[in-house]
Amino acid sequence: MLIDTYGRVATDLRVSLTDRCNLRCTYCMPEEGLQWLAKPDLLTDDEIVRLIGIAVTELGVTEVRFTGGEPLLRPGLVGIVERCAALDPRPRMSLTTNGIGLERTAQALRDAGLDRVNVSLDTLRPEVFQTMTRRKRHGDVLRGLDAARTAGLTPVKVNAVLMPGLNDDEAPDLLAWAVENGYELRFIEQMPLDAQHGWKRDGMITAGDILASLRTRFTLTPRARRSAAPRPPSAGWSTAARPGSASSPRSPARSAAPATAPG
Ligand code: SF4
């Protein structure tokens, strides 16, 4: 088992499959000049499957989350998922993605054994998307989300970061859209990962800000949680209009919600 110095047992394993990405989100990467890892420095598909196998069979890992960079850029992704699905015990598997290319691969990933996806989408406005990601790919993300739902990669979770002056007015619109499409929306605080060194704690959109904005249009009901479970880093809320739901960071002091890794 994986137990930290506080006695907490870790059962989730995040596996970064590539450092590359086809977006350049302003809060994550510089526009140009990135040095990607050389291929010999990356684990091979065989090595990744072997490590996950050890984690699952010997260390008590039950949940594997594939991430990046953008994991859909990893050529062997479907094969890795398929081989991990054949492990005994079989781990639950999810993918954290920007959604570009999901339209093409969602069904193959589902058939290979992927259970669900988290898709990053911060805005419903294509021009704001282009400003935030430096790419014109908004339509690709929406189509990827649609394909994930059709393929049964559910619950489809959407991760959104609100940035001051860019999309901080969009929380209610994002939730209305998520409710309409049956997606589970998660607001994630911006992390100090930014290559441009623009992160400031007092410039963050906080959990309180998000909840106040959502409550202008929605009634939010805290979700019950299992009392024995450790306190999670985020709080879950249901809206009156199910099946949509939202989660927000639990407190402004935290920089992490369950799916904080970008991508
Ligand atoms: S936040 Fe995600 S999608 Fe955006 S550049 Fe970083 S890895 Fe890519």
From TrEMBL:
Q: Where is the Radical SAM core domain positioned along the sequence?
A: 5-231
Which biological process terms from the Gene Ontology are attached to this UniProt entry?
Answer: Mo-molybdopterin cofactor biosynthetic process
NAD found in the keyword field: no
Q: Where is this region: Disordered?
A: 222-263
The record ties this protein, via SMART domains, to: Elp3
- Do you know which PANTHER family this protein is assigned to? MOLYBDENUM COFACTOR BIOSYNTHESIS PROTEIN 1, MOLYBDOPTERIN COFACTOR SYNTHESIS PROTEIN A
User: What protein does this entry describe?
Assistant: Radical SAM core domain-containing protein
Recorded source organism is: Streptomyces violaceusniger
